[in-house]
């Protein structure tokens, strides 16, 4: 505020005394000559010059204000305040005049008294009376000296009051301005509070049918006409208020009360799901209900920690987006046309360029998506059947819970197959969170997969865990593999969350030996490189580079053919990027986000369709997950309660499987005669990387089986078939009850 302008705060630089220097074409420095220095970077030289000019003008204004601060009193004061100040000054002036009159009277009477005493002293009086007169004369002199001192002090006070009156007047005015600002702030807060109360009262009782019929002119997700305007954005004023949207009657419920009760629905979620699946096959949805602006109460999380183990603390859906990790994994296929084009390439090196672009494109959806997806339940599946529209269909299944692992298989009639098993681990490092794919030969996997020490699982312990992505092209037989890079989420504690990707990806063609190295450059404030930069080289088995890749993981990827020239000393020289513009080819460009994506969790067009209800899906499909559906519909309190119920149900199922396995083991040992060798533990055959002492969970995935990959020599879950046949027959008798 203006009242704080005169004070120095940590981290601020006073413009009146600031030094502004230009470092180079885009960078400039502002410092106060002491410990505080700002290094600023503009995107272009023109923008840098605009900032420097504006700061210089502001500095000149600050210097002028500093010079005029001593001559204050010129601030705008209301007429009432002026009158009050004039009356006060008039009274003070009259008092000073009274003091001056008293001064004259004291001097006059003091002189007369002194003269009278002198006359008395000259008279002939008895000896003892003379002594009395001298004593009175001395007291009169002392009184005159004291009176003069008082008069001088009053005169000094008057001069001081006149000198500092303007400064006192300025301080008084500042206090009044601050009081007025506080009153205005309180008035604004009171108005907002009243507005929120009225909005809440209006939202608690809504009609069951608002947009389910064709007569409704208001969209569920888009604001009403006039709410948001592309014109005159600078004059708009925005407030943080909850966005409340009525639910259509096809959802089959009315919102009542404070949205806390989990039984406010008039019909079950299964019936709601059946109502929603109408016409979803014909037309893909382009919007979802807007994200509510609910504040997160930290106490509601902390109170769940009391008396519970850390692994059993349910995280609220406030941190989530209404998609599961399986659906997020399926989003890798958003740019499937890159693999379609790669399948048509005759050259394996050109094909590798498109595979590399597809690899980079899978990160484009993460740039704004800072919310976490739902952790899938064990046995949860997600299918995406786009065989008619795009020529492919995809299936994901959660195959393990400790550690979390998801298997993915996609087939395309355009000539390619994509499969992967993703296991990730995360490390919280104070200010940021690192999410790393498992599968490397590192000690970081200890504690998750266990070590060979104390294990009796045999030589299979030397097999690396999965985490590799496979892409096979049918006509050529080219088999490509690669792994994902590290994802870092910054500003976990304070500030706005933002995501970065860093590391290297090595894409290998196991048939030809061709290789591509992609480098994801980590973001640096002081770097002059473009943010989120990715570079790459496509080389043959001999190491000769044929193509160079350049771009960003959130926008686009280009490639250009590398033709080696000859330098002055006869050595081969690669041309620079700007010299190879003629051969530059755009491989991939990110699709624009849908309108109002910022209100829909920054979902892409594909992501908006993933949770749309569909007929015929398995009962374990993520679209049928009730807590995720409740969250998407804005019923977060009910979603939190449902999420806790599902997690507790999953824990009970795991304990039941472990108890059954323990009983079976004991029964097997009891049936052995003396000297018999007990059979090999099934865990050693199925999950040789389980840590010693871990309870054996005999769970087997329904649609995937764990095999040794002949190409990478890894243990991986591979699709064993049967899902699409079961869907065609609508025979889901083998599916577990997880919801």
From TrEMBL:
Residues 1-60 form the PH domain. It comes from the Eukaryota. Residues 172-199 form a coiled coil. InterPro entries: OSBP_sf, Oxysterol-bd, Oxysterol-bd_CS, PH-like_dom_sf, PH_domain. One of its GO terms (biological process) is intermembrane lipid transfer. Pfam families: Oxysterol_BP. One of its GO terms (molecular function) is sterol binding. Residues 612-679 are annotated as: Disordered. GO terms for cellular component: cytosol; perinuclear endoplasmic reticulum; plasma membrane. The keyword Iron does not apply. Residues 621-669 have a biased composition (Basic and acidic residues). Keywords: Coiled coil, Lipid transport, Lipid-binding, Phosphoprotein, Transport. Belongs to the OSBP family. This is Oxysterol-binding protein. It comes from Regulus satrapa. The gene is Osbp_1.
């Amino acid at each position: 505020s203006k009242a704080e302008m005169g004070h120095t705060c940590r981290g601020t630089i006073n413009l009146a005394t600031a030094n502004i220097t230009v470092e180079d074409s885009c960078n400039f420095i502002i410092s106060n000559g002491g410990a505080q220095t700002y290094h600023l970077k503009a995107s272009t030289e023109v923008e840098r010059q605009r900032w420097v000019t504006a700061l210089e003008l502001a500095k000149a204004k600050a210097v002028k204000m500093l010079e005029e601060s001593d001559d204050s009193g010129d601030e705008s004061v209301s007429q009432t305040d002026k009158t009050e100040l004039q009356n006060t000054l008039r009274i003070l002036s009259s008092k000073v005049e009274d003091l001056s009159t008293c001064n004259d009277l004291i001097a006059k009477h003091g002189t007369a008294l002194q003269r009278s005493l002198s006359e008395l002293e000259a008279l002939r009086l008895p000896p003892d009376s003379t002594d009395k007169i001298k004593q009175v004369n001395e007291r009169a002199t002392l009184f005159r000296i004291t009176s003069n001192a008082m008069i001088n002090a009053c005169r000094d006070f008057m001069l001081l009051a006149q000198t500092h009156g303007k400064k006192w007047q300025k301080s008084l005015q500042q206090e009044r301005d601050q009081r007025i600002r506080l009153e205005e702030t309180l008035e604004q807060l009171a108005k907002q509070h009243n507005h929120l109360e009225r909005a809440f009262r209006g939202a608690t009782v809504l009609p069951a049918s608002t947009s389910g019929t064709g007569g409704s002119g208001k969209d569920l997700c888009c604001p009403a006409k006039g709410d948001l305007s592309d014109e005159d954005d600078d004059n708009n004023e925005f407030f943080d208020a909850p966005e409340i949207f009525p639910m259509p009657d096809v959802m089959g419920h009315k919102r009542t009360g404070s949205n806390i009760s989990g039984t406010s629905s008039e019909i079950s979620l299964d019936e709601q799901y059946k109502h929603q699946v109408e016409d979803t096959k014909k037309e893909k949805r382009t919007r979802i209900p807007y994200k509510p602006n609910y504040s997160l109460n930290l106490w509601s999380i902390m109170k769940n920690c009391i008396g519970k183990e850390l692994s059993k603390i349910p995280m609220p859906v406030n941190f989530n987006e209404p998609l599961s990790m399986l659906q997020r994994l399926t989003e890798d296929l958003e740019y499937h046309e890159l693999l379609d084009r790669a399948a048509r390439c005759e050259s394996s090196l050109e094909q590798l360029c498109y595979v590399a672009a597809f690899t980079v494109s899978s990160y484009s959806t993460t740039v704004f998506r800072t919310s976490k997806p739902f952790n899938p339940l064990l046995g949860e599946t997600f299918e995406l059947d786009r065989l008619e529209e795009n020529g492919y269909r995809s299936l994901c299944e959660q195959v393990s819970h400790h550690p979390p692992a998801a298997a993915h298989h996609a087939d395309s009639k355009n000539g390619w197959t994509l499969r992967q098993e993703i296991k990730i681990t995360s490390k919280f490092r104070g200010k940021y969170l690192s999410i790393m794919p498992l599968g490397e030969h590192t000690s970081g996997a200890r504690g998750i997969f266990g070590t060979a020490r104390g294990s009796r699982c045999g030589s299979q312990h030397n097999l690396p865990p999965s985490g590799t992505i496979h892409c096979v092209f049918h006509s050529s037989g080219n088999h490509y593999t690669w792994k994902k890079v590290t994802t870092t989420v910054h500003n976990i504690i304070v500030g706005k969350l933002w995501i970065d990707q860093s590391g290297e990806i090595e894409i290998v063609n196991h048939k030809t030996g061709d290789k591509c190295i992609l480098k994801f450059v980590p973001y640096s404030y002081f770097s002059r490189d473009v943010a989120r930069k990715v570079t790459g080289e496509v080389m043959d088995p001999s190491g000769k580079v044929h193509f160079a890749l350049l771009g960003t993981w959130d926008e686009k990827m280009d490639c250009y053919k590398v033709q080696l020239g000859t330098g002055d000393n006869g050595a081969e020289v690669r041309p620079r990027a700007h010299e190879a513009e003629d051969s530059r080819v755009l491989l991939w460009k990110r699709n624009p986000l849908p309108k109002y994506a910022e209100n829909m969790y920054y979902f892409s067009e594909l992501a908006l369709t993933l949770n749309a209800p569909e007929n015929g899906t398995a009962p374990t499909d993520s679209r049928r997950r009730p807590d995720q559906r409740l969250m998407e519909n804005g019923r977060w309190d009910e979603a939190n309660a449902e999420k806790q119920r599902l997690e507790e149900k999953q824990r009970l199922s795991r304990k039941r499987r472990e108890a059954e396995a323990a009983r079976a083991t004991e029964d097997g040992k009891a049936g052995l005669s003396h000297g018999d060798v007990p059979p090999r533990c099934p865990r050693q055959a199925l999950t040789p990387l389980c840590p010693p002492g871990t309870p054996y969970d005999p769970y087997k995935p329904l649609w995937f089986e764990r095999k040794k990959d002949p190409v990478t020599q890894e243990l991986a879950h591979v699709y064993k078939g049967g899902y699409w046949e079961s869907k065609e027959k609508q025979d889901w008798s083998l599916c577990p009850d997880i919801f």
